[in-house]
Amino acid sequence: MELDFYLFGDIQICLNLFRLDLLEFVWIYLEKLL
Predict the structure, then answer these.
(1) Where are the alpha helices (DSSP H) in the chain?
(2) Dist. CA 16–CA 18, nearest whole Å
(3) DSSP code of 34?
(4) pLDDT tens readout for residues 1-34
(5) What's the pLDDT score for residue 27?
């Protein structure tokens, strides 16, 4: 049970980091367009 909880936590952290990278990439792309 605890193992699943920690695994889920790691997945959430990875998703959050990925989302931040994606937002930064989109922001830079938009700045280049404007």
Answers:
(1) 2-33
(2) 5
(3) -
(4) 566 777 788 888 888 989 989 999 999 999 999 8
(5) 93
